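Researcher: Next sequence.
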Amino acid sequence: MLRTGAVLFLISAGALFGQSSGIDLKAMDTGVQACDNFYQYACGTWRKNNPVPGDKARWGRFNELADQNLAIERTILEKAAKGVSRTPAEQKIGDLYNSCMDEKGNDAKGVAPIEPILERIRAAATKEDLLKEVAALHGQSVRVLFGFGVRADAKNAAEQIASADQGGLTLPDREYYLKTDAKSVEIRKQFAEHVRKMFALLGKEGGGAPDAAVMEVETALAKASLDRVARRNPNNTYHRMPVADLANLTPQFDWNYYLGHVGIPKIASLNVGAPDFFKGMNELVGKTGLEELKAYFIWHVLETNAEYLTAAFREENFAFNQTTLRGVKEMSARWKQCAAQVNTSLGEALGQKYVEVAFSQSSKDRVLKMVGEIEHAMEQDVKAAEWMSAATKEQAVAKLKLVANKIGYPEKFRDYAAVTIQPGKYYANVQAARRFEQQRQFAKIGKPVDKGEWGMTPPTVNAYYSPAQNNINFPAGILQPPFYIAKADDAVNYGAIGVVIGHELTHGFDDQGRRFDGAGNLRDWWTENDGKAFEVKADCIAQEYGKFSPTDGVTLNGKLTLGENSADNGGLHLAYIAMMDSLGGKVLPKHDGFTPQQEFFLGFAQIWCENATDESRRVTAATDPHSPGEFRVNGVLQNSPEFRQAYSCKVGDRMVSTNPCRVW
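Model: Next structure:
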């Protein structure tokens, strides 16, 4: 049942798009031909009228919706913060929000919140003493040297195991430390200056060159790290081994001490994501001096906690990480920062309230129906694939039938009773939430995977596929306009949220997902010839997108973005099949001047309208497996014969590829 708040939100969202079909006519640039540049045709006026705000690196339809969701969350949080007849969950989210909003009170504390951590690091008399601090630091979310967590055993997805993996870097990617072009060199200089400024704000670290120490340690870690493309192959990050074998890789590091103090149950084995990384880490620890390692550890305490310290720390942290790296000109409003922090720390407590006011059962039912239709379309598509043998098709359909669909929110919301949130103690509150989450994760070790658990909070504007759980997940936050419009034509919704559904479903069969079976296990269920045929089709997409340039001097990494690009192409194809099946051969009249087929492609394109800073485009080209909006639209549509037919495009038009690519 919709509450009043939900009705008001949906009406305002409908008014935003204004057209009875659901197409945003005001976003379009009809001076451009659809067959020449469909992205500009669908989004040109929106892009002209929506420059990147000063507090953003990128501004698109995802960001618009995220800001609308934040406004709903703000109303919830401000009511909860008043302290009148609150439930336990409302007390926690309200007091956390209030403690974040108290900037003056937080500034008055200075660096006192992190001083006990710093004193332990300073007091270490030997490297052995210092390295014992890694367990405590990881317990406080300070990720020095490497990463440690819990994951499903890739070859036995029914069991969850501890996992040690590469980590310990500050810059967005290993390549930032290794590339020798002028831009990379300049960023490293700016990073060193940022480290110096942060240490100067701390004011207690005496002589030495902390920036040189940090750069030396992190560069060594970067050299030992696998690159992002290599990590796309799950076989490269799965190495289950006895703890003794990991200890042999890193004799300089006491794993028995670490595992005994980080807060996990006793284990005999674990996954080691990148064995060569740990060999490199061992060499680094052996040759680096105590004071240099201390500087690196202190740096990560500062970097991890800067936003919880004084305004000077927050501003310097923002200046480098947002302005220098991503081109963001100003901090977002404090209430936005605080609402986002509550979503991060107590997401399902806030999310439960969000769902009550912003998501209806009718929306959930309609999306579930669409999911079923698109799954049916994929089954048809697999069975019709001329390049696959009957044996592989049978395995693919079996996996498809095991995909679970999670829509809107968890069946059971998380219980935060163990988290103590106190008025006026922002840093302590964040740490309490972090400890709760870490303990919750560590408690999973040795237990079966909980396939009902969500990896995103309900207000999140995103969706995902989980290979280990073989399920697709759509939070309530994305099931809002323009992704899903309750009053829109079906064709528009098939083009928008329908393509997102098809996208996530296709991830189960992309270059990563295809390596897992229906039970979530890393297993090769393809015949040798079918595997080779897949690689040929996938390489076509990698080569195609590798030629796209998001900004001067930068091209996309076609292999890094392969999975997302494959899913975009497959998702569009599947959603189109589902839409056409729903029409059942009927020819509907035009609406707002468009046929249903044309509406479908406009609904698809308009969810990707966006602008971004050049700095942000450079970061995402190096780190993001997703292509920018322009290429998520034009790159897909130039491969689509259905698009060509809907808009009567001809060979020679820019939107018609001479070598169309598609896997699914």
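Model: Residues 22-51+360-408+452-646 form a domain with the Collagenase (Catalytic Domain) fold (CATH 3.40.390.10). Confidence is low (pLDDT under 50) at residues 1-18.
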